[in-house]
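Please discuss these two lines.
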Amino acid sequence: MNGTALQGLLPLVVLFLATTAPAQNRPWCDSGLSRSAPQTSTASELKEKLREAINTPDPMGNRLLPISLSITLSGTVQLNSVHEEHDEDITFCLKLDQQSQQHLQQELGDAHDLPTEIHMEIVPYALDRSGNAVFPGWKEGKKDRVLFDGEPVRINTMGWSPEFDNLSGRDKRLDGKHIQVTGSLVVDPHESLRTSQTGSRCGPQGCLELHPVGVITLLNDSERQ
Protein backbone atom coordinates (compact mmCIF):
# COMPACT_ATOMS: atom_id res chain seq x y z
CA MET A 1 0.00 0.00 0.00
CA ASN A 2 1.45 3.37 -1.03
CA GLY A 3 1.73 6.51 1.09
CA THR A 4 -1.26 8.20 -0.56
CA ALA A 5 -3.55 5.30 0.30
CA LEU A 6 -2.33 5.26 3.89
CA GLN A 7 -3.00 8.98 4.22
CA GLY A 8 -6.55 8.35 2.99
CA LEU A 9 -7.14 5.64 5.59
CA LEU A 10 -5.75 7.62 8.52
CA PRO A 11 -8.84 9.84 9.07
CA LEU A 12 -11.06 6.73 9.06
CA VAL A 13 -8.89 5.03 11.69
CA VAL A 14 -8.96 8.15 13.89
CA LEU A 15 -12.76 8.37 13.53
CA PHE A 16 -13.17 4.68 14.46
CA LEU A 17 -11.02 5.05 17.56
CA ALA A 18 -12.85 8.20 18.61
CA THR A 19 -16.26 6.52 18.40
CA THR A 20 -15.30 3.25 20.08
CA ALA A 21 -13.11 4.62 22.87
CA PRO A 22 -15.97 6.01 25.00
CA ALA A 23 -17.69 2.61 25.09
CA GLN A 24 -14.48 0.86 26.10
CA ASN A 25 -13.44 3.46 28.67
CA ARG A 26 -16.79 4.56 30.04
CA PRO A 27 -16.66 6.23 33.47
CA TRP A 28 -18.07 4.14 36.29
CA CYS A 29 -21.36 5.45 37.68
CA ASP A 30 -20.85 7.83 40.58
CA SER A 31 -23.29 5.93 42.83
CA GLY A 32 -20.97 5.21 45.74
CA LEU A 33 -22.13 5.35 49.35
CA SER A 34 -19.97 6.89 52.05
CA ARG A 35 -22.09 5.41 54.83
CA SER A 36 -24.39 2.41 55.15
CA ALA A 37 -27.92 2.91 53.85
CA PRO A 38 -30.87 2.10 56.13
CA GLN A 39 -33.25 -0.67 55.11
CA THR A 40 -36.94 -0.04 54.47
CA SER A 41 -39.94 -2.10 55.55
CA THR A 42 -39.73 -4.17 52.33
CA ALA A 43 -36.04 -5.08 52.69
CA SER A 44 -36.72 -8.52 54.19
CA GLU A 45 -39.09 -9.42 51.36
CA LEU A 46 -36.51 -8.32 48.80
CA LYS A 47 -33.82 -10.33 50.59
CA GLU A 48 -35.93 -13.46 50.28
CA LYS A 49 -36.60 -12.88 46.58
CA LEU A 50 -32.89 -12.30 45.89
CA ARG A 51 -32.11 -15.61 47.58
CA GLU A 52 -34.78 -17.40 45.54
CA ALA A 53 -33.28 -16.20 42.25
CA ILE A 54 -30.53 -18.82 42.09
CA ASN A 55 -30.88 -19.61 38.37
CA THR A 56 -29.30 -16.50 36.87
CA PRO A 57 -25.87 -15.79 35.32
CA ASP A 58 -24.80 -13.82 38.40
CA PRO A 59 -26.58 -14.97 41.60
CA MET A 60 -27.60 -11.93 43.64
CA GLY A 61 -28.72 -13.33 46.99
CA ASN A 62 -25.30 -13.74 48.56
CA ARG A 63 -23.94 -10.37 47.44
CA LEU A 64 -26.55 -7.65 47.14
CA LEU A 65 -27.67 -5.88 50.31
CA PRO A 66 -31.44 -5.24 50.10
CA ILE A 67 -32.89 -1.82 50.85
CA SER A 68 -36.29 -1.50 49.15
CA LEU A 69 -38.29 -4.00 47.08
CA SER A 70 -39.48 -1.39 44.60
CA ILE A 71 -38.78 2.27 43.95
CA THR A 72 -39.37 4.49 40.92
CA LEU A 73 -36.78 7.10 39.98
CA SER A 74 -36.35 9.36 36.97
CA GLY A 75 -33.41 11.07 35.35
CA THR A 76 -31.15 11.20 32.32
CA VAL A 77 -29.07 8.28 31.08
CA GLN A 78 -25.42 9.32 31.18
CA LEU A 79 -23.66 9.31 27.81
CA ASN A 80 -21.58 6.23 26.96
CA SER A 81 -22.78 4.41 30.08
CA VAL A 82 -24.99 1.75 28.46
CA HIS A 83 -23.08 -1.51 28.42
CA GLU A 84 -23.53 -5.29 28.27
CA GLU A 85 -21.59 -6.99 31.05
CA HIS A 86 -19.89 -10.41 30.84
CA ASP A 87 -22.91 -11.97 32.60
CA GLU A 88 -25.30 -10.43 30.02
CA ASP A 89 -26.59 -7.78 32.43
CA ILE A 90 -27.41 -4.54 30.62
CA THR A 91 -26.13 -1.69 32.77
CA PHE A 92 -26.31 2.08 32.60
CA CYS A 93 -25.93 5.14 34.80
CA LEU A 94 -28.90 7.40 35.59
CA LYS A 95 -28.36 11.01 36.63
CA LEU A 96 -31.30 11.63 38.95
CA ASP A 97 -33.70 14.53 38.58
CA GLN A 98 -34.00 16.84 41.57
CA GLN A 99 -37.40 15.38 42.45
CA SER A 100 -36.02 11.83 42.41
CA GLN A 101 -33.06 12.86 44.55
CA GLN A 102 -35.54 14.08 47.15
CA HIS A 103 -37.65 10.93 46.80
CA LEU A 104 -34.59 8.74 47.33
CA GLN A 105 -33.63 10.73 50.40
CA GLN A 106 -37.13 10.31 51.86
CA GLU A 107 -37.17 6.58 51.04
CA LEU A 108 -34.00 6.17 53.08
CA GLY A 109 -35.27 8.09 56.11
CA ASP A 110 -33.89 11.50 55.16
CA ALA A 111 -30.41 10.05 54.74
CA HIS A 112 -27.68 12.52 53.79
CA ASP A 113 -24.68 12.35 51.44
CA LEU A 114 -26.56 10.23 48.92
CA PRO A 115 -25.25 9.98 45.34
CA THR A 116 -27.03 11.85 42.58
CA GLU A 117 -26.36 9.03 40.11
CA ILE A 118 -27.70 5.48 40.35
CA HIS A 119 -26.24 2.40 38.71
CA MET A 120 -28.92 0.40 36.83
CA GLU A 121 -28.80 -3.31 35.98
CA ILE A 122 -31.23 -5.19 33.75
CA VAL A 123 -30.66 -8.93 34.24
CA PRO A 124 -31.22 -11.41 31.38
CA TYR A 125 -33.29 -13.69 33.63
CA ALA A 126 -33.66 -14.51 37.33
CA LEU A 127 -35.36 -17.84 38.04
CA ASP A 128 -35.97 -20.01 41.09
CA ARG A 129 -35.14 -23.72 41.37
CA SER A 130 -38.30 -24.64 39.50
CA GLY A 131 -37.59 -22.30 36.61
CA ASN A 132 -40.16 -19.67 37.59
CA ALA A 133 -39.28 -16.01 37.11
CA VAL A 134 -38.53 -14.24 40.41
CA PHE A 135 -37.63 -10.96 38.71
CA PRO A 136 -38.26 -9.84 35.11
CA GLY A 137 -35.39 -10.20 32.65
CA TRP A 138 -34.59 -8.80 29.21
CA LYS A 139 -34.20 -12.26 27.63
CA GLU A 140 -37.31 -13.75 29.23
CA GLY A 141 -40.52 -14.64 27.44
CA LYS A 142 -42.97 -11.79 26.92
CA LYS A 143 -44.90 -12.57 30.12
CA ASP A 144 -41.83 -12.22 32.36
CA ARG A 145 -39.80 -9.68 30.42
CA VAL A 146 -38.74 -6.21 31.54
CA LEU A 147 -41.19 -3.60 30.26
CA PHE A 148 -40.25 -0.60 28.14
CA ASP A 149 -43.09 1.90 27.67
CA GLY A 150 -45.56 -0.81 28.65
CA GLU A 151 -44.25 -3.34 26.12
CA PRO A 152 -41.75 -6.22 26.52
CA VAL A 153 -38.29 -4.71 26.08
CA ARG A 154 -36.38 -5.54 22.90
CA ILE A 155 -32.61 -5.10 23.26
CA ASN A 156 -30.14 -5.58 20.43
CA THR A 157 -26.63 -6.41 21.67
CA MET A 158 -24.99 -7.01 18.31
CA GLY A 159 -23.30 -3.60 18.15
CA TRP A 160 -20.64 -1.93 20.31
CA SER A 161 -23.37 -0.60 22.61
CA PRO A 162 -26.79 -2.16 23.36
CA GLU A 163 -29.68 -0.66 21.42
CA PHE A 164 -33.32 -0.56 22.52
CA ASP A 165 -35.48 -1.47 19.54
CA ASN A 166 -38.59 -0.21 21.37
CA LEU A 167 -37.39 3.33 20.64
CA SER A 168 -38.93 4.94 17.57
CA GLY A 169 -36.78 6.53 14.88
CA ARG A 170 -33.24 5.67 13.84
CA ASP A 171 -31.57 6.40 17.18
CA LYS A 172 -32.04 3.26 19.29
CA ARG A 173 -29.47 4.16 21.94
CA LEU A 174 -30.64 4.95 25.46
CA ASP A 175 -27.79 7.41 26.04
CA GLY A 176 -29.03 10.91 26.87
CA LYS A 177 -32.68 9.85 27.12
CA HIS A 178 -34.88 11.13 29.94
CA ILE A 179 -36.49 8.08 31.50
CA GLN A 180 -38.30 6.72 34.54
CA VAL A 181 -37.09 3.44 36.01
CA THR A 182 -38.70 1.08 38.53
CA GLY A 183 -36.62 -1.60 40.21
CA SER A 184 -35.27 -2.99 43.47
CA LEU A 185 -32.96 -0.71 45.45
CA VAL A 186 -29.83 -2.46 46.72
CA VAL A 187 -26.22 -1.88 47.64
CA ASP A 188 -23.62 -3.90 45.76
CA PRO A 189 -20.68 -4.07 48.21
CA HIS A 190 -18.28 -5.86 45.87
CA GLU A 191 -17.92 -2.64 43.94
CA SER A 192 -16.22 -1.16 47.00
CA LEU A 193 -13.29 -3.45 46.21
CA ARG A 194 -12.58 -1.33 43.14
CA THR A 195 -9.73 1.05 43.86
CA SER A 196 -8.97 4.53 42.64
CA GLN A 197 -6.30 3.00 40.43
CA THR A 198 -9.04 1.38 38.32
CA GLY A 199 -10.99 4.60 38.02
CA SER A 200 -13.83 3.58 40.33
CA ARG A 201 -15.85 6.24 42.11
CA CYS A 202 -17.74 3.81 44.38
CA GLY A 203 -17.76 4.71 48.05
CA PRO A 204 -16.49 2.55 50.92
CA GLN A 205 -19.96 1.03 51.44
CA GLY A 206 -20.35 0.00 47.78
CA CYS A 207 -22.60 1.14 44.95
CA LEU A 208 -26.25 2.13 45.23
CA GLU A 209 -28.15 0.35 42.46
CA LEU A 210 -31.53 -0.47 41.03
CA HIS A 211 -30.84 -4.16 40.54
CA PRO A 212 -32.74 -5.71 38.98
CA VAL A 213 -34.68 -3.18 36.89
CA GLY A 214 -38.27 -4.11 36.06
CA VAL A 215 -39.84 -1.20 34.17
CA ILE A 216 -38.48 1.62 31.98
CA THR A 217 -40.64 4.49 30.72
CA LEU A 218 -39.50 7.14 28.26
CA LEU A 219 -40.33 10.67 29.45
CA ASN A 220 -40.87 13.83 27.45
CA ASP A 221 -38.64 16.84 28.01
CA SER A 222 -41.70 18.66 29.38
CA GLU A 223 -41.75 16.11 32.25
CA ARG A 224 -38.20 16.93 33.31
CA GLN A 225 -38.01 18.26 36.86
About this structure: The chain is about 20% helix and 30% strand. The chain has one domain: 28-223. The two ends are 56 Å apart (CA to CA). Confidence is low (pLDDT under 50) at residues 10-26, 194-200.
